[in-house]
Amino acid sequence: MSAEQRLFIGGEWAEPDGGHYEVIDPATEDVVGLAPEASRDQVYAAAAAAREAFGPWSRTAPEVRSAILERAAGIMQAQLVPYAELAQAESGATTGTARGMQVAVGVARFRRYARGALEPVESALPPQINEAGPMGKAGVFGAMTVRQPVGVVTCITSYNNPWANPAGKVAPALAMGNTVVVKPAPQDPLSVFRMAEALEEAGVPRGVVNVVTGSAPAVGEAAVDSPDVDMVSFTGSTGVGQRIAEVCGRGMKRQLMELGGKGAAVVFDDADLDSAVAGIGTTYSFYSGQICTAPTRVLAQRGIYDELVAKLAGYAGFMTVGDPRAKGTVVGPVISAAHRDRIESYVELGRKEGATVVAGGERPDFERGFYVAPTLLADCTNDMRVVREEIFGPVVVVVPFDEEEEGIALANDSDYGLLDYVWSGDVAKAFRVARRLRAGGVGVNTIGRNMEAPFGGFKQSGVGRDVGSYALHAYSEMQSIVWPG
């Protein structure tokens, strides 16, 4: 990797107008590399290049698009270890996460959408018999729907997974015939340039893929407000998503938004508590809690409340915090010193609000790195800010409830609605409750996901759905074609 990364615009590697900024390893605080600081003009140039490339690329045979995506996946797979080492250095992920959940998932998504490029885009509709009238003679009219690419898509990605998240946007967008401008998170952008190199080597035409970066908000703003951009796909905080939506609304640009979450885990008296604890405990370890799908808000029925709190505290105590490169580490650092301070301020706020810190709550004793101890807050109520607001760190809050209706009401009393969870030994009850939760997805006795199921949120957790074939739909427009029989 070059010490000074260049931008990728119109098939060329360009020097940034704004120089470079340092990308910091969250575990060591060492400099990983120098990321380019694009100017507003360069972002606009990237969007213009994508616009110029859109026509030819959108008319490319699906088999050609599929082959390029498959070749790119093979190149990424061959470089899995060095790519994972870079992702780990940028994001602070453990070795297993960097390899298995970052790069490997990115590769899998490119392969999934290599197949997706070959999925039919036409669907026939039943013929309709029309009587004679103001619209013309009587007749039988056939119709079909065709999914067409949207155009130029800006992909703004999150810092918690510098491979899977951009791959989940870029691959389906390209499969559908769109061109892209990718704006990675400023904390860990270097991995996305490796993705662009793989696509370039795989034969993607000039201008189809462009990558621009910057630490300043102006870079992302330009990637959204460029007149050449037709759609914005964003993963990040609800507050930033709202600002992007305002700009998109003025230009009638299409949006796909995966925003914040405060996932409720409703645990009933008859639940398998060990299963529930293992699922909820992933909040402590998975990306160090920096994941919007985590079951961070535990609603525990009164009969098992004390036992569940004790088990969660014990689980947190076994979480080894430390160097993500070291064997046995379960919880690595969070992304930055600023984010560590933010998480710690929420823990202190919880104390002031009356919550009991049952586990964690103190900064781990490391000379370097942005570490946060897995923390459990009990004796919480649903009006506390630590219960209502997304902390995005290894912090779990527990709220008791008595009856089923109260548990459902508490779960739904949230601005968010991304993924919720239900644990119960009564499967009928679990599914009954799941149907009443206002969330885009519900896990029943599991935190696992089916990667063909639509993913997205209710309320302030997002707009639209992706994953599986739903991502192909998200990056397309629906066109109707009608003809006389």
TrEMBL record:
<dbReference type="InterPro" id="IPR015590">
    <property type="entry name" value="Aldehyde_DH_dom"/>
</dbReference>
<feature type="domain" description="Aldehyde dehydrogenase">
    <location>
        <begin position="13"/>
        <end position="481"/>
    </location>
</feature>
<protein>
    <submittedName>
        <fullName>Aldehyde dehydrogenase family protein</fullName>
    </submittedName>
</protein>
<dbReference type="InterPro" id="IPR016162">
    <property type="entry name" value="Ald_DH_N"/>
</dbReference>
<dbReference type="InterPro" id="IPR016161">
    <property type="entry name" value="Ald_DH/histidinol_DH"/>
</dbReference>
<dbReference type="GO" id="GO:0016620">
    <property type="term" value="F:oxidoreductase activity, acting on the aldehyde or oxo group of donors, NAD or NADP as acceptor"/>
</dbReference>
<keyword id="KW-0560">Oxidoreductase</keyword>
<dbReference type="Pfam" id="PF00171">
    <property type="entry name" value="Aldedh"/>
</dbReference>
<dbReference type="InterPro" id="IPR016163">
    <property type="entry name" value="Ald_DH_C"/>
</dbReference>
<comment type="similarity">
    <text>Belongs to the aldehyde dehydrogenase family.</text>
</comment>
